[in-house]
């Protein structure tokens, strides 16, 4: 060792295990160091001789293709010198030729991949795996994504599994979803998306810009993004949306091929966007809204057209989806006035263009609640999704032409049971109150009037392209009175199933008609049943009933509606989506001309899959896991596939089961080798021609 020789670095140790534990990044399956911004991390630099006072040593962090100091993409940090762009570095201790340094990045540093070089005099040392991944930091009070509550961070940043709530308001069910933000290549896929977004370095500092860009990139529209949406019912050349059980396979495939993965629907887009945001360090949750309006004109009404049999017609430009799933991300908004921090809605399902791209949000959830729909981004659109009115029109043929009669306006139907997974628990949490005031309350009325003043609705007319023949009462009849349509007779309809809705059995449904006013009333009731997609599109008409009933008020009567299996099984087997049973009823009181309409969507019910495995297992020790399914239905389940995945236990696996006859029991077994400690989950899903929606999950604790 020559004391006078020029100072050279011989090795850099990124102290990965201690740094990643302190930064809550020890889950990432990657060779490189992953840290969060605004929080110190340490590196150990080994030198060829002792460090002297006059030695020049600096750490250089470069981001992007061609890092330059004057552009802020190259940071040159010298120990104990004033900070540079909010970054600091200090010597923790010197021990002979070893030097321990602490680096603190700025809490608003651009997120992304930084290349670290160490410069000593004129020598530059490039360590192996010298790329450091810098993420948002919900643990840092000065980061705009700071979240104070520890349990919430554990759920919204670190939990790599969860549920997405689907079905209908009448029957909500949880679909397990593996987010898998720590799996191999997922972080690299997110970094690839960041680069692809063309966000400037300055824009990468702010999660509002990053989340908006990611909402655009998760769909394939206009930028070759991650998932190609399809609602066609025919998914040849790709994976049907119902077949996914998590984001991992999708993002890995996208990162490998750099081409959109086929196919997704709203819960797939939301599941993947949730993975991307959690992976980048922004607290994020999947949010499901039941009876969500997809309103194409921004006038806060959705028009539903019924024929005289009470069957819904597919002629509307706007629609009510049985459910729609988007995401909320947590941040302080520096780009809008104070008071709108916290949860922000973002949506990557390609519905409508915003500023020329299929992207949506971030939109302050508080702004939606208060009716401040002038605030960026896309708050009018999100407001309409949870607050529109549903207007029913009857289409009658008069002299060979369609005439439209307005029969009802429902003001409390849209945006119900807004749901997300509860923090730290496997149950649904209802967050409707975060999005809206109680229906009919004074606050709701004020919020609505505020929203209307920004939206300025056009007159209330049907918008099906057939509007020239419309028969309507007066022009702009915007209902600001928020109560159930008042009728002279207190007419009320309820719809429910009287037997479990098992595929292969008759569907037995009851329509209950009530009147509360005294008197003799003659009521014409039309009831119809259809199969529809969750987007509200009708797939098949199953049957209708027309009855005239006499009620001595106040009283009620139950009218049965029964549909034979032959009426629906063929349709059920031919579509690759899960379909719902839509029941619509129209009642008219002859004496008063009171009209009322009511619709309810129900989902089919299925036998369960059971998972048999131990409650705990040891790291790297094999254990068996069995999946058991008994076909309790009266139909053969054709082309059955069992899809299983356990993050940190085993990769996505598919078993082909062939046809399962009624009464048959099927069993599959897999040998699992856990590679990660802690609470893990196994998710299983059964798909067949007849049924799409059977899934289950089971937890296991992995110990040392």
Automatic annotation (TrEMBL):
MF terms in GO: metal ion binding; protein-glutamine gamma-glutamyltransferase activity
EC number(s) stated in the UniProt entry for this protein: 2.3.2.13
Protein origin, superkingdom: Eukaryota
UniProt cross-references to Pfam families, sorted A to Z: Transglut_C, Transglut_core, Transglut_N
InterPro entries xref list: Ig-like_fold, Ig_E-set, Papain-like_cys_pep_sf, Transglutaminase, Transglutaminase-like, Transglutaminase-like_sf, Transglutaminase_animal, Transglutaminase_AS
Transglutaminase-like domain ranges (all copies): 258-350
Keyword set, alphabetical order: Acyltransferase, Calcium, Metal-binding, Transferase
Classification via PANTHER family: PROTEIN-GLUTAMINE GAMMA-GLUTAMYLTRANSFERASE, PROTEIN-GLUTAMINE GAMMA-GLUTAMYLTRANSFERASE 4
Similarity-based family: Belongs to the transglutaminase superfamily. Transglutaminase family.
Cofactor note: Binds 1 Ca(2+) ion per subunit.
Positions of transmembrane segments: none
Active site annotation, chain numbering: 266, 324, 347
PROSITE patterns according to UniProt: TRANSGLUTAMINASES (PS00547)
Name of the protein: protein-glutamine gamma-glutamyltransferase
Cofactors that this protein relies on: Ca(2+)
EC supergroup of this enzyme: transferase
Binding site for Ca(2+): 387, 389, 439, 444
High-level lineage: Eukaryota, Metazoa, Chordata, Craniata, Vertebrata
Record has Acyltransferase as a keyword: yes
SMART domains documented for this protein: TGc
